[in-house]
């Protein structure tokens, strides 16, 4: 979950950064989720890879999903800080609940439980793309780089864990290590206080 939802996008973005800068104005839009609110990011667990197994029940799997979505938001915070003074801006967003194929491997009873909500409350994919399109295309939001959006609107009252600059920096360093990008960082296990 961490690799697919977060780390792969981190690496792709970092590899594209020079190109994004020379072809600015450009934007990095990261699709996160309000489910970051249920996240509980533990750097010591990430560090020794105990977080890499999906878990055996839905609540564990959902927690990993929420954690990966918090990572998407923290990544956007740190990225905007690193992009100050360039013509590259970045945004993260909650797209809403959308009728996609995301739940195609749910067990049959979970599907039976989820289906009514799925058809009554979830948006079709076209509606679900609107906040993403807004962040990619809306003119004049460049000064809001690094922020989180929902329903095509800036969200300022997001939880403190999604505004934690120290965690965002730590996550960035850790991600560089995981991707083999940092030569200077030494991994220190524990609570991550070895990071600077
Ligand atoms: C899921 O598994 C974890 C760890 O085995 C356990 O602590 C938790 O209570 C389980 N949750 C549910 C809803 O079964
Ligand atoms: C940003 O874009 C403006 C307008 O295209 C340009 O004048 C400026 O040099 C660019 N700044 C950087 C840092 O690339």
TrEMBL record:
Membrane found in the keyword field: yes
Q: Which domain of life is it from?
A: Eukaryota
Q: Which residues cross the membrane?
A: 102-122
Q: Name the UniProt key words of this record, in alphabetical order.
A: Membrane, Oxidoreductase, Signal, Transmembrane, Transmembrane helix
Q: Where is the signal peptide?
A: 1-23
InterPro entries in the record, alphabetically? NAD(P)-bd_dom_sf
Q: Coiled-coil regions in this chain?
A: none
Q: Which Gene3D superfamilies match?
A: NAD(P)-binding Rossmann-like Domain
Q: Which family does it belong to?
A: Belongs to the short-chain dehydrogenases/reductases (SDR) family.
What is this protein's record name? Uncharacterized protein
């Amino acid at each position: 979950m961490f690799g697919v939802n977060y780390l792969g996008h981190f690496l792709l973005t970092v590899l594209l950064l020079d190109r994004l800068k020379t072809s600015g104005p450009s934007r990095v839009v990261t699709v996160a989720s309000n489910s970051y609110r249920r996240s509980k990011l533990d750097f010591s667990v990430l560090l020794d890879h105990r977080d890499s197994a999906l878990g055996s029940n839905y609540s564990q799997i959902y927690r990993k999903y929420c954690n990966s979505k918090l990572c998407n938001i923290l990544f956007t915070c740190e990225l905007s800080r690193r992009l100050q003074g360039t013509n590259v801006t970045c945004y993260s967003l909650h797209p809403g609940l959308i009728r996609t194929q995301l739940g195609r491997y749910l067990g049959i009873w979970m599907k039976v439980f989820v289906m009514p909500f799925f058809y009554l409350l979830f948006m079709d994919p076209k509606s679900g793309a609107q906040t993403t399109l807004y962040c990619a295309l809306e003119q004049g939001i460049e000064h809001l780089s690094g922020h989180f959006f929902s329903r095509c609107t800036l969200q300022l009252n997001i939880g403190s864990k999604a505004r934690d600059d120290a965690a965002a920096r730590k996550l960035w360093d850790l991600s560089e290590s995981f991707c083999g990008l940092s030569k200077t960082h030494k991994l220190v296990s524990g609570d991550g206080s070895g990071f600077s």
